[in-house]
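User: ok so my PI wants both of these folded by tonight, can you help

Assistant: No problem, let's get them done. Here's the first:
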Amino acid sequence: MVHRVYEQAARVEAVNGRGGDDGIDIKVTRGSRVRVFQLKYYPDGFPTTSHKGRRKSIRESFARAMRCGPQEWVLVVPCVLTAAERAFVRSLADGLAVEVEVWDRAKLDDLLAVHADVEASFTRDQLFEAANVYGQERALLMDGIRDVSARVTALGGQAGELDEHWTVDFARQDDTVVHTLRGKHPRAHEVSPIVITMSGIGPLGPEQAEAVRRSLGYGLDEKVVLPRGAVGKMTVTGPAFLAREHQDVEMRWHPAEAAPLAGMDADLVFVDGEQVTASYPGTLQHLGRGPTGRSTRITLAGCHMRLLTPEDAVAAASLEFTFSLEGLEPAAALRALRRRRRIEAGGAFEICTSTGTVEGGDIPPAAAHGELAQLQLYLEDLDVVQRHTEQYFPVPGQLTRQERIALRIARLLLDGHCVASPLLPQAHITLNGQDSPAVRALLSGEPHPVQLTCRAFALQLAGRHLELGPVLVFHPQATADPDSAARALAALDAGRGDGTEVAVRPVGAQRFRMVLQRCLTGTEPAPVPLGLPGCPEPG
C-alpha cells in the first residue's frame, strides 16, 4: 500500500528486520525528505491497562528511527486508536523536529477502498482454499495465464457448438468484447446465409451517402461509419444464435482482409486497339466488385489513382487521383507530371500483373489544368541547374517569387542566353583610385557603358549554394547615383579615390543584363524574354 501511495514521486524501500531494522520497517525518500514507517501488529491497540510492553516497544522503535533524522514518522496499526493512545503517539515528538502520524484501521480501510486489488491479492489464498472445497479453483484462475488459456479455449469450444456452419471468434479490448463471425467451411455463406438489413436509413450527409455508394456498390476498400441516428433499425437473420434485431446502433464496416492481388507489381497500360501507347509501373493496391461496378486502386510514382468502373457500359467511369512530387528529384518529377497528363487525357487502359490483365476499361478525360505548364517549366529549370551543378535534391515544395525568378535566370544563362535581370536594378562598383576621363564621365552623370565581372555567380535555393560560373553583368547605358558620384569625385580630387564605392543603374526603368562568360561572342548579346507567367519582362 505504501508503494501505491508514494512510488510515483518517491523511492520506497521495505527493510528486512532480521538483522535489526533500526526502527525502520519502510523508508520513503523524496529528495532530502525522509518518511519512516513503523509497523506494529496490535489488533487490540496498546492501552496502559494491558499489554504494557507495547508502548515501550513503540517508544524504542521511535527512538531508533530518529537516528537517521527523518522529517516524518508514521506508526501503522490495524486498530482504531483511543484518544489516550493517539495522545501517546503524538507525545513522542515533543521537543523534536519531526512530524508524527498514525495509519490506523480507518486510514487503512480508506486506502484499501481505493486500491481494492491490493486487498484481493492478500485474500486470494483464502478464496483458493474455499474454491478447492467446491472444485472451482480454475474459476479463480489460480494457475495464472494457463488457466486463462484453458478457459478461453473451453469457451471457444462451446461457441463452436452453437451452429454447424458458423462459429464466433472473440477478443477482449479494454472493456469491449469483439466478435468475429467465421464460417466453418467454404460454403457456409451459401448453405446458411446471414443477411443484415438496415431500415430507416437517413438522413445521410453527401459524403456519407457517397461513401456508402462506393463501398457497397463498387466494393471499394474504405471504412464507412453510419452514426447513431442514421440507422433506424438493423435486423440480422440467419442462425438462431445470431439472429436478432438491433436499434440505436452505430454501424461501421471495412474490409476484413486485403484482396488476393493487393500489393502486386502492376503496369498501367494505355492502348489504342492492340498498340500500347504508354505504360507505367506501379503497385496494385485494391481490386473490388459490387452490384454497381468494379473498383481499382493503383499507386504509381508520385500518383495514387482510384477508378470506379460501372457495369453499365453506357455509364461513365469515375477517376480520382492524388498527385504529389514530395521526395522526387526534378527528373523523376517530370516523369510523374507527364504520367499525370497522360492519365488526365483518358482513353482505353489495362492493368497488368504477372498473372495477366486484371482490369481494363476506359478512363474518362479530365479537365485541363493551365498551371501544369508552369509546373513543368519550373521542374525543367530546376533539372537543368541540378545537372549543371551536380547537386541533386528533391523538388522544393515552395519558392519565393524572387527564388523562382532567379531559378529561371539561371536556366536561361546555362542555355547560353543573355538575360535582363529584374533582380538587378542597380550595381555597386569600387574605385581603385585611378583617375581618367572615362571614370569622370561616368561620375558626372552622363550615360556610359558599364561592364562588371562576377567570377563565381551562384544561385541560393532550398538552402543550397549552386554555382553557375563566371558571369558578365553589363548595360550599354548606365548612370551613377548622384550622391555616391559626388562623394567619389571629391575623393578623386583629394587623391583618396581608392576604395570608394559608387552605385550605378541602367537608364530609365531598365535592368542590368547578364551572360555567362563562356557564352560570349564577338557581338553584344541581346536579352531573351524570361517567359514567366505573371512576371513583367524587364527592359
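One down. Here's the second:
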Amino acid sequence: MADRGASPLSLPDDWPDHPDPFLALNHMGGFDWDLDAGVMQMDAQAHEIFDVRPDEYDDRPRTLGTRLPPGEARRLDTMVSEALKDGSENYGAYFRVHRRDGSLRWTHTQGCIRRDETGRPRRVIGIVRDATQELRDGEARREQAEEEDLRRRQTNVVQLTTAALAHARTVQDVIDVLKDTHGLTHLGATSLVMGQLEAGRIRLIAEGPVGSFVPGTEVTRIDEPYPMSEAVRTLSPCFIESPEEFATRFPGLWQGITGLRITSAAYLPLIVQARPIGAMGLLYSDRRGFSTDERNILVALGSSIAQSLQRAMFYEQEMDLAQGLQQAMLPRTIPSVPGADLAVRYRAATLGGSLGRDIGGDWYDLIPLPGGRVGAVIGDVQGHDTHAAAVMGQLRIVLRAYAAEGHPPATVMARASVFLDELDTDRSATCLYAEVDLSTGVIQVVRAGHLDPLVRGPDGTCRRVGVPGGLPLGLSAEFGRLDYPVGTVEIDPGDTLLLCTDGLVEQPGADLDDGMDTLCALIATGPDDVRELADRLIDVAEERRGDDDVALLLLRRRVPDGARTGGRLKRRVMPGDPGALAEVRRMIRTAVEGWGAGELADEIELVADEMITNVLMHTEGAAVVNVRVLDGGGGRRVRVEVEDSSSALPRRREAGESGVSGRGLLLIETLTDVWGVEARGGGKCVWSEFVVGGAA
C-alpha cells in the first residue's frame, strides 16, 4: 500500500551513484532510475531485497514487476506514475515481493524525483529495504495497543460500575446499576442473571431480559446441576466457552435458553469474607471463550458486586428492623370515631448510614374520650435512631394515659413534659395535643414547641391556625415553665383538621413559614377525601426524599345526617353565688327549649340543679356546667355534664328524717335515660343524658 505520508527523501547533489557500503550498513539497497533511458540500476543489497541475481536482472523496471504480486505491481506503478505527473519531489510505498521459496516479503521504497528546469522528471534516486520485521513489529504493537485499550476499557467499566454501586442502597438498586446501559452491557454481555443464597437455596433476584425466565429456576438447591449452583458450591467461577459446552454441562438450563442464542457465559460466585451470599451470571451472544485478562477482570468485578450486594442486604435488614420497631411503637389501629373521617400516615426518613438511621421519633395517636370527644396527638422526639423511637413509644403511652384519665389538655402536656424530663434520656420532643368535641366543633389545643395546626374548609381553602405554645417536652420542667396555654379552635361540619410533623414542611434552604404556605397551597388543591389527601401529602414527601420522617393526622368533622347541628352551653358556678345558680337554671331551660326538647325542660333543669348543688355542697370548688346536644349513636340526646375538682365519687345515702337530702342519686336515676361518672384529671365529671323525641 502507498505511504504518501512517509518522510521525504532528500539527497545531496553529490550523492554517489552506487552507495553500496553506506546503505548496506543500514540494511538498505539503492537504485538509480534513468527515466529517459528507462534503465534502473540497483546495488547488491537491492538485488538481495528483490531476491534476484545480477545475471537475472537486465536493469529494466518491468523485470522487477514480475517479482511482485499482480495487484501490488499495478498499485506501485500507479502510485509512482502519479508522483511523476503531479510534480512531487518524493514518493514512498510499501509492497510485497515474491521470494524464491514462494513466501512474500514486505518491502518499502522511497524515491527522490529529479526534474529539469521545465519540471520534467528525468531521474529517480532511491532506496529499498526489507520491511517485514518492521510491519510485524508494528502489527504486534497495534495488537498490544488494542489489547491494552480493551483492558483499559474493561477496567474502566469495572471502576465505573464499582463507583455506581457505591450509591446503591437496596438489592434492587444493585440490580438496576448492573442492568443499566452504563453497567455490564459495556462488557458485551447480552443479559444478566443473579441469585441470592438463602438457607442453602439460591433465589433468583434478576432474571435477565424479558421472556428469558426458565421455569423451575426461581429457587434452586446448591446441589442441583445449574451453573450458579456450581459457582456457589465450589466458590469458583464457572466459565462456559461455547454453546456445545453449555449444552453438555447443563442440558436442563440450556434447553430453556436456547432461544437467546447464547454462545458463552461466565457465572461468578459472590463471596464476602469467605462466605458465599449468591451468584451472578453474564451471558454473551457474540463471543466464544475468555482470555486470562478477561477472566481476572470478571472475578474482580464479582468481588466488588458481592460487597455491594452484602451492603444492600444489611441495609434492607436494618430497614425491616427499623420499620418493624417503628410500627410497633405507633398505634396498631386507629379507632373509628362517630362524626369524623380519619386518616393517619407515617413515612420513614431516607438517611441511609448506620443501623437505625432510617427510624425516627415522629408519632401520631388518636384517643377516644368520654362525651363524644376525641384526643388527637402529633409529636416528634429529637433524633433519628432506635433510642428516639423507644422514647417516642414511652411518651406516646404516658400521654395517652394522662388524656384517658380525664386531665385537661394543659395538664396532659405538663405531666408528659415532667415524665420526659425524669426519664433517663437527653432527648426532648415537640408535641401538639388537640381535644376535639365533634358535637360542637370546639377544639382545645395545647402546643409544646410544635407546628401550628392547619384547617381546611369544605371549599378547599386552607388556613394556618396560630396557637399559643410552651416549651418542648422535657425542657419545660428544666426551665421551670410548666404552663401550657390552651388555644381554642372551632371547626364546622366539613372542615378538616390537619396535624403534621416538620418533615412534611421543612425543605433545605427554605424558611419554615414559606414551607407552611407551600403546604397550605398543596392541601387546598388536594382531593376532598381525607385518605386520598393524606396519600397525596405523603407522596409529595416521598418525592422530596427528605432526611426527616413524617407523621400526619387528618380529622374531618362529618356533616350530621339531616344537616342538623348541635348546640352547647357552658357556665361556671362559684360557691356562695345563688344568683349564678338561678341564672344557669334559666339558661338551661331556654337552651333546651331552643333545641326542641321543651317537653323535657323540667326534668333536665331539675337534674342539672341537683348535680350543681351537690358540687357546691360537698366540694370546695366551683362547678363547671356543660349542656349540649349529641347526634348519632342512639339518636338525638341532651347531655348535662358537671365537673368539679374533687376526686371523691358520689355515693348513695339514706334520706334523713327531714327528707331534705339523700335522694339526689335516686332522682338522677329516675329522670335520666343514662348517667355516669368520669375521672377528669384531679377531679371528676358527673353526666346525664336525655333522649330527645322532638326535632330541633
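The chain has 17 helices and 27 strands. The CA atoms of residues 191 and 250 lie 18 Å apart. Good luck tonight!
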